[in-house]
Amino acid sequence: MDFSQRYVALGDSFTEGVGDPDPGSPNGVRGWADRVAQQLILADSSWGYANLAIRGKRMRQILEEQIDAAVLLQPTLVTIYAGANDILRPRVDIDALMEHYDAGIARLAATGAAVVVFTGFDSSGSAVFATTRGRTAVYNELLREIADHRGADIVDYWRMREFRNWSYWDTDRMHMATAGHLLMARKVLETLKASHSIDLPELDARPALTRLNQLRADAQWARDYLSPWVGRRLRGVSSGDDLTAKYPALSQPDWSGASVR
């Protein structure tokens, strides 16, 4: 099927949809990008959609493995978020990283597609990841320069104070939960000035924990999520090593059994 409008989503777990489980979707996740595509297709059947994002990918991998594939799809709209997995590494050269990102975004912009990028999230509320806040702030400033230069639109994740509510986050404390992906889909559609019918769920109130119970919860989280995450990095492996892109070719996925929300 030929599509006159073509949306291609690039990136890592953020764009793949980790944290928003859906057994009926490829890789078992749905995510904000699928929800954005669904809204675009519902409003205009000329849209086709591809999602090339794979969890765990670093910027170099995203640029080398996804940019060429995206260009071949002749996109009219591209969303890309890369660099989060680099920022979390023990050492990273943010300036060099963003020079590569600029080159990749320039290639996408040269197709004539509208390009949408994302600032990094403000991790000040995380006891573990707050140490990367300064890196992310530098990343964001350099990204704003790139967006100005390349004519890209920015979805400003850094300034989304709603995400300080932990109910928007998955139990792994690293990825957005379904509610977070719904909120992000709305933010992206608003940036695109596109109509949508996404309603946000009521968030469950989380009871305040005593200091002892909080320490127990933190210890359990470290065993279940932090230790395996650190272990993979020490071994040089990724949770996405055995995965392929959810939607490598332009299509209109069957979301008939899924909620529009």
Set out the fold topology:
Elements: E1 5-11, H1 13-16, H2 32-43, E2 47-51, H3 59-72, E3 77-81, H4 84-87, H5 94-109, E4 114-118, H6 133-150, E5 153-155, H7 178-191, H8 211-235, E6 247-251
Parallel strand pairs: 1-2, 1-3, 3-4, 4-5
Antiparallel strand pairs: 2-6
Helix pairs in contact: 2-7, 3-5, 5-6
Can you tell me the number of structural domains? 1
Going by CATH, what is the homologous superfamily?
SGNH hydrolase
Low-confidence stretches: none
Strand order of the largest sheet: 5-4-3-1-2-6
Please state the second-level CATH architecture.
3-Layer(aba) Sandwich
CATH topology: Rossmann fold
The secondary-structure class comes to: alpha/beta
Helix content: 40-55%
Distance between the termini: 27 Å
Which range does the strand content fall in? 5-15%
GO molecular function, one term: hydrolase activity
Pfam family, one: Lipase_GDSL_2
Organism: Arthrobacter crusticola
Keywords: Hydrolase
What would your notes on this structure say?
By secondary structure, the protein is α/β, with parallel strands linked by helices. It has a single domain, classed as Rossmann fold (3-Layer(aba) Sandwich), CATH 3.40.50. Helices cover 41% and strands 11% of the residues. It has helices spanning 13-16, 32-43, 59-72, 84-87, 94-109, 133-150, 178-191, 211-235, and strands at residues 5-11, 47-51, 77-81, 114-118, 153-155, 247-251.
